[in-house]
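Final paragraph of the annual report: two paired records, presented back to back.
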Amino acid sequence: MAFKTFYKVAAALATAGVLSACGPQIEKTAAEPKRITSQQQLALTDVVSSQLAPLALGGKDYLLLASEKRGLVLVTGEGEEKLALDGGTVERFALQQLADDSWLIAVYDEDGAELQLRLLDVEDGSPRIRYLASMATTAPQVAMCFSRQAGRTHLFAIDENGLGHEYVVHPREQAWEFTGLRPLYFGEQVSSCVVDDRSGKLLVAQPPLGIWSLNADAEMDEAREVFVAASELPAGEFGGLWLDSSSGNLWLTGGEKVLAFNINAPGQGPLFVEALADIEPVSAAVQQGALLALEEESDQVHRFAVTLPEPAAEMQAFRSPVEIPRVRASGQTAPVQSGGDAADDPAIWVNPVNPSASLILGTDKKSGLSVYDLNGKLLEHFAVGRVNNVDLRPMQHGKFVAIAAATNRTDPGVSLFGISAAGEVEYLGLRNLEMDDPYGLCVYRKGADLMTWVSDKDGAVQLLQIVPGTGNVDWSLEKVATLQVESQVEGCVVDDEKQMLFFGEEDGGIWRLDIAAFLSGEAKPQLIAPVDGERLAADVEGMGLYHAGDKSYLVVSSQGNNSYALFSRDGSQFVGHFKVDINLDKNLDGSSETDGLEVSSASFGSQYPQGLLVVQDGRNRMPSQTQNFKLVSWADIAETLQLK
């Protein structure tokens, strides 16, 4: 699918190249602008560099240069060499400031065929470079760039074949580590990359197609699109991307030209274009109001006196988005068997005798129902068809102590499962429904009766009673009522004690219904929490109830912003929200685009003493695999949101 996406967006780039003729662009037919001459040349000694970057260290200005002979070389703003690595062949590096006098550097060393991490800082007033870590690669890396996400450092590295990887780079005891997060696919001829942490965008230069823009966050859709089409750039090679984060200007080189674009305004054409005399730059940057440029494999930095573009107005008025609190994942299930969008909805069976032996049931909506233990190990899979949503309730009947129900879209109906006291799950068969496409489902108890709400994907919601038969498999469904809804409903949950139904209208919000009053004709659903793009961002998906007396909460998947919203038990008050984040200690990724969820307040032992939240993960990373379910300790949620 990744390669299909690449070719699809490549076609978009080609189209953009045609359409951009309608907007501002570099005039190809007019006379070339007058070439500018450098005002100063900084002579270097035996460096052979094709990349430079400015930085400040100890209150002084420096230039860092890649060296094909000496690895990395640091010089002052006047060109005086201060330090160099002891050898190595480096053509590209990435640079990120960690603190005022501390910079993280990633390099690809051709001699060792490895990615290396270095730390540039100050000791006794003098700059120094220290080794942190290295990792062998299977192909030369042609582009590297850092990103800052949720307080972590991420590194993007793209090889000469166009295969990119995103890593979390982080300290671990005596050394730093590269933890792989996901692959990225571009195709050949990538020349450079940069990340704008303000917008969360990764920009990749790829002659002759143009410059891509895509989301840097692995838990979001790539949303790959054209930032600058090839028609806006000089013909031939272009790249050398460098972002001036203070001004919001993206600098790059192409042919004899240096160009700058407003990072916040894709498609608006360049803010700055100058042709340089005597050199064809491959790397350019700005320092102290001057333009610096470097030719390929050069021993000379050229400084130009030019009128630089003003900082983007958007940068001056920019406000970072409000950061949603994050809670680290505590565990995960094995990936589901089916590829693509497959995992959907979980349910939790609490073993009343031995809570640590409880079970997680999870749907694979292309295959059937999977059963996991609390460590996420797959215990059993029932290949019963396209089951979508699952829920369960305790119910003593013969050898069973609980009954689970799941909507089945292969043969429209509800699949039933019995769970014994020993934790053995048995398939009880399918009960057909007069419904085109059974979709959402939630089970509840009404006294001794077992009830379920089932939604039709494009229709109404039915209330059914699950009626046990004389034997273990002689069960039936009896329709009790029909609830008309405005639009698509999937996620739902019932507060058994209060006989209150909560359901999510995916684009609308959370609705509440007094079931008894509805059945007597005295009540209709109430919209208690509309989608507002912040607390709830469409789609509204999975729902669960955390029962703990006055510390009870309605938990809802806010799929549009990859978060989970907590409301008061009756759904009337917003309590807070959070995201499920990476857990580097356990090598777990976070979760995103969650469909179904379930929560329990039972104590499952030392790992989940206050309960457990299970959420479907739409993008299973570290490494990239088929979808699964993430497990989160409620104690961590309570601590993060300061639930009292």
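The closing record of the year follows.
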Amino acid sequence: MFRPKLFTLLKTYNRSTLAADAAAGVTVGVIALPLAMAFAIASGLPPERGLFTAIVAGFLISLLGGSRVQIGGPTGAFVVIVAGIVARFGYEGLVLCMLMAGALLILFGLCRLGGLIRFIPFPVTTGFTAGIAVVIFSTQIKDLLGLRMEAVPSEFIPKWIDYFHSMGTCSPAAAALGIGSVLLISVLRRWNPRIPAMLVAMLAATAAAALLHLDVETIGSRFGELPRMLPSPALPSFAAADLAGLIPAAFTVALLAAIESLLSATVADGMIGGKHRPNTELIAQGIANIGSAFFGGIPATGAIARTAANVKSGARTPLAGIIHAVTLALILLLFAPLAKMVPLAVLAGILVVVAWNMSERQNFAAILKGPRSDRLVLLLTFALTVLVDLTVAVEVGIVLSALLFIRRMAEIANVSVITDAVCGDVDSAEDPNAFALREVPPGIEVYEVEGPFFFGMADTFWNALGNRRKNIPVLILRIRNVPAIDATGLQNLRQLHAQCRKQKTQLVFSGVAAQPRKTFEQSGFMAEVGPANFCPSIDSAIERAKEITKE
């Protein structure tokens, strides 16, 4: 079950692969530098927390993961929820949340749930991803424009109200650096996508601020100097009373990490023509988040943009991800003192670009043109993410999607009487099993059930069967188009069988599919009705009915 890709690929490793991985790892390490610091700051934490995460979690995800080219580290998806946890429980609460989330991810992998993550509805993932993008953008306005504000409200609408009231305090220098970095990143990416545009923008803005002696807030003025090495592994003290309050947040962190890491691994598979091991990837993500907690980091997952950059840079194995982590560690060791000069406005500009890239614009627009139920799920998830809370948005989105799916399944399910079908029916020429081609003796009534027989179609079933004739010798229930049945459907059939026995009517089934048959056998229902009354086809069911009427 737990088979890291790295150990499989090392069996055929050679020098050319090492050269390709080294070049890709160094490139992605450089790209990850500004992002790691920016995500930590956006989460309300010092920039070194993001670097610790990229180094420790990035190393462990590549070492133990199930993808050939996955790059792990802090991502924008966590900014909203991490900021909320830190604001309410402090960093100590975040560490406890990460430990629980890591344990959940390992449990997901051990229980082989990696394949189930893909069943999260697409409108839900699109809605909360777009909502996260809007929230990230809204949190960066203060630093992007250099607004002088004592405290920024956490709620979306009050935050923007305060922004508008504070526009008069905008710093022209900070605004020029922030907006200029956004434009420079956009131009460089169009001109040559291989250039690490975010790093170039950060270096250019830092040099401009230093040479022109601009009065702007920097990493140093707000956070002081960055440490030059990783801290010793340790856990801060935390209150046990916070445990219950952090459980929903831990589940959300685990779910987000699972979704984004497996989505990133799937994207990478498409780029390299490979296939990742989802359960191994989940276990590695869990270990990486626990490791990040021990080294003062923040939640981590697979990063789609950095993974794509890794592939485009020529990466072939997980060793590229390990080299990416080592590169960041060397940068921290050699250049940490210079980081204090980086203007916060340029990091805000970088996050504005990140928000734009993760806004899901095309997918959002496509879903809005789709079915009304999908539009409802998308817009509700998006609105709850922006206005309320990401945890609530994911929970409501999934529940609403499930309810709408149940309704759709109930709508396509059908129960109809077919005893009086006319010979020469339109379908009979195409379907040799069409009931219209059969002759049914008097006293036999036939109903056909179509679609999954589950709790959502109980009313449909009884509304149709309520009109059946009473005191007939045989009732044939044709269920050839019932692919699955649940406990409620089985109970409905048991009730029908009990009614038939009181009315001295024999119930006969025709065309039972594999899953319903297995359910009937295991529950004892087949024995109750009698195995002889479960017929493979409508012809054998009619013959069985003739036998019963002769008895």
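Residues 15-169+216-341 form one domain. This concludes the annual technical report; the extension proposal builds directly on these records.
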